Amino acid sequence: MHDSTGFVMTGYVDTMGAAHQVFVLRIDGSGNVVDQRRFESPFSGLTHGLGIQRTQDDGYVLTGFIADGYAIWEDKRAFVLKMDANLNPTWSRYINTPWSFNRDLDMGESIVEIPGQGYFVTGSMNIPRYQFSSSVPNFTDQGVLALMLDLNGNVLWNTSFAAQDSVTAGQWNVGVKPYFDAGSNLIYLMSNNAQAHQFNITVFDLAGNIVNDWDYSYLLNGIAGFDLIESGNPNTLVACGVAVFYDFLAEGGWSSYNYPPVLLEFNKTDGSMVWSNLYKFPSEYYGSFPNGFFTPIPGEQPELFTPDMVTRAPDGGYAIAAYRSNASSFYDLELVKTDQQGHTVCPYDTLDFVPISRVRYVS
User: Taking the chain, what is the end-to-end CA distance rounded to the nearest angstrom?
Assistant: First the structure.
């Protein structure tokens, strides 16, 4: 994330051993390091930061997960860490729900401050499924984490949910990005349903009640949502993600997973779409979008790890950053600049970097 003082980012550091440490880095507008911290968890050797935000008290709030391992059956916990302006921890909160059937999916993905109220955190959590009995669960679904904490980290409400339709039964859902609308006091939450190949926008009031819910499964045979930001119009928001099924050769066929970025604007009141655009990168290698940390269904959207990829440009348009695997099994960074309606205003640019470290940036 960025503000008037520069940039702050989180991710993890591979210590070349069993441990992964949360990494927080502050840099100024010229890229000079201002401060940095590493954090370890007392519970596990794998600790990852995934979402970080500046808070009104000039501190920071961070969410992510800790894990015994990357497989879905290994123990995991979501966490929220509050830091002061100098990146010193002030409090932490762990989210660890019961799990069974070899699936543990408690993971924090993104967080937003609700001024004067606290912090809304999303990601995923274990939700039992009662498919054959009303009292004995027979499965653990990956549900969307929708948790509200007060300014001291105490739970105010938890309205986490999973899809209940007969096709997907809520098996793989993850909260991606929340947006707080101060004018209406509503929280707009982007989430993904991997098996239905769609993203949803769920709207909460400040008491945790769901007041609206819209899905966008009708677009391009499915879109994985990655980012949700304000637009230049106070009545709309802009969502960014990738087309899950898109074949550059067949122009809309189902034979390749090329994952081109998609940008769309929708109305806050009813979820109706204003416009959408898809961007076909002129890369020679259309590799599949990299799997997330936990991707039990090969070829699908990741169950976690949805990087920030769009921002408002100074002229009111949008700047999109995406990445794609190349022939060398590394990733190229691809950039797109659009106007206010999502039309491209300059050629795409592909940047190919030589790997220089084992620090992975995620937010």
Answer: 7
